[in-house]
Amino acid sequence: MTVTGEFGDIDNGHIDPKIYTDQAIYERELEQVFGRSWLFLAHDSQLPKRGSFVQTYMGEDPVLVVRQGDGSVKAFLNQCRHRGMRICRSDEGTNKTFTCSYHGWAYDLEGNLINVPMEDRAYRKEIDKSRWGAVKVRVEEYKGFYFGTWSEDVPEFTDYLGDMAFYFDAVVGRWDNGLELVPMTSKWVIDCNWKFASEQSASDMYHVPFSHASARMALTDKPEEWPMRWGDAPPGRQFSGNGHGSGSVWLPTLGIPDLVSGQDYVDWLVSNQAEVFRNIGEERALKVYAHNTIFPNFSWLGPNATMRVWHPRGPGQVEVWSWTYVPKDAPQNIKADIRRGVQRTFGPAGSFETDDGENWTEVQQVLKGWKARQSKLNAQMGLGHEERDVHGLPGLSNDVFSETAARGFYRRWADLMAGLSWAEIRDQDAARERQETILPKEVQEV
């Protein structure tokens, strides 16, 4: 079943560049993609006690995520129902209530309207406060991670993940006591479409040997240890499913020399690898860790311990929110090593981060041209060579140097943009799976 039409022939690897530049398309995806998908909101470690809150975004809608008195987490639109002002101006903190600074309407931790100034005089006691609470978000928790959606139609989060749960668990399930986010959110703006960043994180290992070669060599006096040179990169696979994507080259051992966080981190990792292998299995620990995206805009990089959300800010701009994640039980010196490694590589001024941002902004700049926007873009790498449930990895996969996950990302995006219900999308996915070109099961081991 081929997705063709206004966005290109995605199943055959043709993408129309206007999806990165057109304002009308952007407005539609705020409703159809960000309004109908599960979006990352917060992690347990960001909400330590009753009344703890963080302000985030679902698309361009500001949202408050709040720890309740019973320990649960709820979320609601950060908008007063009187004249639309934010009811909280802080990025994070601890509150008992949220009060709009415009006219003083106050809301409780669940977003219910609890106080209207001069209610007796201004409204003659005729306002029904139960009808004017903040708009609620549907929230689900997965292993300490909270995701939200505006949609009642979208499947439960575990069904939405599908086979991606195997790949997500490879990072969130490694350690007995889980992960925590370092309590500092880095935020910066890149002048490019959000899909460049999200799709690359799902699919693109192809850029690594070239785009990041100079940065990698700058971090070491042994450039020959760079394992991603053209032609001799280690074997690896790329997964695609439900719009999500994951891709990694395979490691011979967890104790490979680390040019990012230092030898102390490597030694600690080796000394604790039995815990990792017990929790997720040795094979998964060595095969699943690198590039990952949960559709549409939550990504993480395993080697560099960074998680981020790509918040859209118009067709030509994205606001990056980035966190360092660490094993909760790791010693403080190891957590500090990991944090410094992220700052050097994928922080706002990190050597690899600036490589990626330069690529994306340059593409966006080129697409200002009239003729450039008429040229279809090629996403055909590995087309027709997908395999299913091979090499101990569930779902549809391909060689790590392919664009299987990119095509899957844009297929899901196009399905939602077409206004298909999630039931219709499920039926289309089943039809696509029946029509897949699957290579013979006698797969040669890489």
Automatic annotation (TrEMBL):
Rieske domain ranges (all copies): 38-148
Keywords in alphabetical order: 2Fe-2S, Aromatic hydrocarbons catabolism, Dioxygenase, Iron, Iron-sulfur, Metal-binding, NAD, Oxidoreductase
GO molecular function, one term: monooxygenase activity
Coiled-coil regions, chain positions: none
Pfam families: Rieske, Ring_hydroxyl_A
Domain of life of the native organism: Bacteria
PANTHER family given in the database record: 3-PHENYLPROPIONATE_CINNAMIC ACID DIOXYGENASE SUBUNIT ALPHA, CHOLINE MONOOXYGENASE, CHLOROPLASTIC
Family (UniProt): Belongs to the bacterial ring-hydroxylating dioxygenase alpha subunit family.
Name by which UniProt lists this protein: Terminal dioxygenase, large subunit
Organism: Rhodococcus erythropolis
